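Progress report, Aim 2. The chain analyzed during this reporting quarter is listed below.
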Amino acid sequence: MKHPNFFIIGAPKCGTTSLARWLGEDKQIFMSQPKEIYFFDTDMNVGEIKSLDEYLQIFKYATEKHLAVGESTVTYLISRIAVKNILDFNPNAKFIVMLRSPISMALSLHLELLWDGWECIESFDEAWNFRKERASGTVPKGKYCTVPEFLDYENMCKSGEQVERLLNTVDKKLVLFVVMDDLVINPLSEYKRVLEFLGVSYSGKTKFDVVNAQKVARSLFVRRLTIAMYVLKCKVGLDKLSFGLLNEVDNYNKRSHSPILNPELKQELVDTFRNDVSILSGIMGRDLSHWLK
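Predicted structure tokens for the chain:
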């Protein structure tokens, strides 16, 4: 059994699920199942796996043929202790950080948490205005939200501050940044760049399906019913059985959605994230100011 030697550590709604799936399809790479383990972010109380033995069992089928062994947990970038814990586990670990405009990230994250039952405020405007109070638990959260900090859309999406903290701990040569804009425009080029970073040769992959794309429920009532049924099945020990009918209901209930911001809120978001985008631009040596336009 080989231990993990690379980690996709964030950010949320930046293509991490797609990249993890693409890498897992390569025979030279072993990706964890489940994708997100939440083991090293001990300050966030998200995951259920608490012991190192339990954690390593997830990688028991990783062998010498796997040149890269990894997992993808987006809270590791947000956490203040996860990276240190990872380096204590593997001082030579490599880190992949995926990034996008903080404004579009916040909008997409709100929809994702709404879909997952963590968010209960349908309007992004209202959810944004209550972000600080709700992170401290003083304003209602979704029924299934176990970490109120996720509802602080400002803090969750300030990747510049998070990356700055990462680089205070990790040698920059062990970190690869992947910008979602580039991944959308040329997934093959970005995929090859990731393989090179991991020391894995390209094996000819040309198909790059999007996984976990932005979605919104046609009916939140129906979505909340299906979440309750998923939870009930797991509680009574039927989680190994097919979720076929529930999945069909969910698929019918999904629709695409492009949120439209009013000008006042858009300007507030621009002002809120301006310095953070500047931090990232400096770190990456790349002008990212278009994210604010």
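The mean pLDDT is 89. The longest strand covers residues 94-99. These observations will guide the mutagenesis work planned for the next reporting period.
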